[in-house]
Amino acid sequence: MKKHFWQAILITFFLGVILGGAGFAYYSYRMAQEGYPVSYFRSAKQESAHKSVTKTFIPRKVVVKQPRLNHRTKKLKQLLKPIVGEKRFVGTVLIIKNGHQIYNQGYGYANISKKALNTANSEYQILSMQKSMTAMLIMQQIQAGNLQFADHLDKFYPEIPGASQITIRSMLDMQTGLRIHKLSKQVLSSQQVADYSAKHVQFVADENNKWSYQPVNYTLLAGILQQVTRQPYYQLFRRHIIAPLKLQHTGFVMQANQANQLSTPYHNVPFSDNSINYQKVDHESVASQHNELGTGNVYMSTGNFYKVLRAILRARFLTAESTAILHEGVGARNYGGGLYTKNLTSYWSHGVGYGEESGVMISRDGKNAVVMLSNYHVKKTALPRQCAQIYQNLMQGAY
């Protein structure tokens, strides 16, 4: 009797393990189909991505000594010293001249405790500069005839107040009265993030058709992409951007374990102190990482970012006509499709948050550019000014 009893217990146990494993596999499959990155975050104690906790990015590949500079690079570094010298900038600076890389150097620490240095291949959260890529994905659907600039938001989210007065074009150009003041504190899938935004967004009628930088426009554009293509935003990004360009230093911050050189973000304490002293590691909650859907949760190296933006401007993904139309700057800040129009010959973009900052100045033909990605955010940021100064010097033949 005892023998049969224990046999029954063992059979029940193994059946439970098998069924539990099958259930978890199916759950993971459904989450992946929904656009939910089923992965783990790098930390001393790994925890499931479904758990809403803060995580610190730590570079897996530690570089403690910069490679030797050739004569030209050494000269360029000296010329740049008054702008991004010691204690002036932490991150990586890339300079492109006539389509060729002439400078790509790291400054400061990727992680102070490990004495890991920022390098040419260091990876950073690019923040709002991701919007130019989301805009390109939208334009691909317009070019394919699946969307139109004149489509109104209520076609996709009829529950949003004022949606009948808002078009795809106005969302791309930040010309809507949409505002959101409350973001989810729970970890949501890409579909759930878009739906949450649609449920909690507010419409300020007096501000409609006026320029105002509101990231929720791009979160909802990501949601529209998912409705039109029936694919998660993350899958679209990988298929249409990462795969064709063979990007090796690009991914989503929710899957930081797949990055090799993702720098640790810092800011000072108190934040009003503008010196660079690595006093405080910045933490971004997993919920926030997901909330940045379509607007700022991609990490990249300077080289990978330039490769994508150059491909966008040189009509690799779209026709030349579609590319030009997408980036027609409007409003008080000449914003169009994720880029600001600087003048008749160049664009610029900027992102900031979670201890990181990013900036780019690039010619309209993509042949000349300055990309600056930083893992150190200070209150009185100098990065946009530094980026513009380096670009101006480049175009005047100083480098």
UniProtKB/TrEMBL annotation:
Highest taxon of source: Bacteria
A single Gene Ontology CC term: membrane
PANTHER family: D-ALANYL-D-ALANINE-CARBOXYPEPTIDASE/ENDOPEPTIDASE AMPH, PENICILLIN-BINDING PROTEIN 4
UniProt keyword list: Membrane
InterPro entries associated with the record: AmpC-like, Beta-lactam-related, Beta-lactam/transpept-like
Protein name: Beta-lactamase class C and other penicillin binding protein
Residue span(s) of domain Beta-lactamase-related: 77-377
Family annotation (Gene3D superfamilies): DD-peptidase/beta-lactamase superfamily
Cross-referenced Pfam families: Beta-lactamase
Compartments, as annotated in UniProt: Membrane
Main location: membrane
Keyword Membrane attributed: yes
